[in-house]
Amino acid sequence: MKAFLIAMDNEARCLTDNLTNMTEERRFGRRVVRGELNGEAVLLVVSGIGKSNAAAATQMAIERGADVVVNVGVAGGLDAAIDVGDIYEIDSAVQYDFDLAAVNGTMVGTLDEYDTPYIPLEPIGRLPLHQIGTGDRFNDSDADNDLLAQLGVTLRDMECAAVAHVCRTAGVRCVAFKCVTDVRGKGAMTGQYVDNLKRCLAKLTAELPALVAGL
């Protein structure tokens, strides 16, 4: 079964506005939705914002039968070539606020279970691929942005790497699509996010069924 992991209720409408035969319930404080997309039964878990929420919700989706988890949402762009409203697929993710360097000398973002900071996803390849940095903060910090640049990531969010890690540990395929609401160097990122969120969610709503068709 295909399960969608989406952080916020407004982002979740990108999926629910496309579902038929929809039912929903609350499980362990989370919104869980079942319905049909492209004629196929799918599951949605609305996680809440941040890595711990995303990890817990991903595990819930897997325990409820998911063999593919699709993380959908918005992200910030860190490359001037990226435009607001672009949708990208993710090929790897890194938790840039995870650091064991003082203990074992590994690069920032390297979980103890890995020998690299980069957690691979299994993309479909229908859109341009990017690496994403995931952390539990939303800011316009030069220190964070410089670290992300050193890691070679071009997008930034608060959930994707946690979803990818849980899926990889469980042997479940993980796919992610992110629409860009704000781009570094094109104004305050928080202001861009507020101004562009509605337009980006509308674009995800329009394109999501085709993006995941046949997955």
Strand order of the largest sheet: 5-9-8-6-10
Question: How helix-rich are the residues, as a percent range?
Answer: 25-40%
Span between termini:
10 Å
| Count of separate DSSP helical elements | 6
SSE string: EHEEEHEEHEEHEHEH
Output the CATH class name.
Alpha Beta
Could you state the CATH homologous superfamily?
Nucleoside phosphorylase domain
CATH topology: Rossmann fold
The tally of beta strands, per DSSP, is: 10
Which class of secondary structure composition applies to the elements? alpha/beta
Mean pLDDT score: 95
Shape: globular
The largest sheet, given as strand count, sense and whether it forms a barrel, is: 5 strands, mixed, barrel
Determine the strand fraction and express it as a percent band: 25-35%
Uncertain ranges: none
Judging by the overall fold, what is the CATH architecture? 3-Layer(aba) Sandwich
Overall tally of structural domains:
1
Q: Radius of gyration, Cα only, in angstroms?
A: 16 Å
